[in-house]
Amino acid sequence: MYIERDPNGDFILESGDIADRFGLSREEFRRRIHQGLVTSTVERGEAEDIGTCRLSVRLGNRMWRAVLNNEGVVQNEAVTFVRGRGHTP
User: Fold this and answer.
1) Residue 87 domain-assigned?
2) For the chain, how many structural domains are there in total?
3) Considering the entire predicted model, what is its pTM?
4) Which H, E and C letters describe 11-78, residue by residue?
5) Which domain holds residue 63?
6) Among 6, 29, 54, 75, which residue's CB has the most CB atoms within a 10 Å radius?
7) Residue pLDDT, tens place only, 29-86
8) What value, to the nearest 5°, has the Cα angle with vertex 56 and ends 16 and 46?
């Protein structure tokens, strides 16, 4: 997977690559983005993780996460299932 950064430092991900991670076509993934069903976050590493970033993209009860090193290369990634909001163990 190739992840770029724009001049402002924001991450740019290819929608087809992320769609594949969720088992969707690019068109279906884009449709869900336009419906507001896809959210994303960026966390910057601190202390011993300084220089790294964790990118997260959530769609329904699934989340794709990738950790990038200080050179922006994906070190690991995974798609997991997450509990719904409001769930109490």
Assistant:
1) no
2) 1
3) 0.85
4) EEECHHHHHHHCCCCHHHHHHHHHCCCEEEEEEECCHHHCCCEEEEEEECCEEEEEEECCCCCEEEEE
5) 3-81
6) 29
7) 999 999 999 999 999 999 998 989 999 999 999 999 999 998 888 999 999 999 866 5
8) 135
Whether 71 is in a domain gets the answer yes
Q: Give the number of residues written for the chain.
A: 89
Q: Is residue 40 assigned to a domain?
A: yes
Q: 76 vs 24, 51, 81, CA distance in Å?
A: 21, 15, 17
In this structure, are residues 55 and 62 in contact, taking their beta carbons and an 8 Å threshold? no
31 within a domain of the structure (yes/no): yes
**Do residues 25 and 33 make contact, with C-beta atoms less than 8 angstroms apart?**
no
CB atoms within 10 A of CB 30: 15
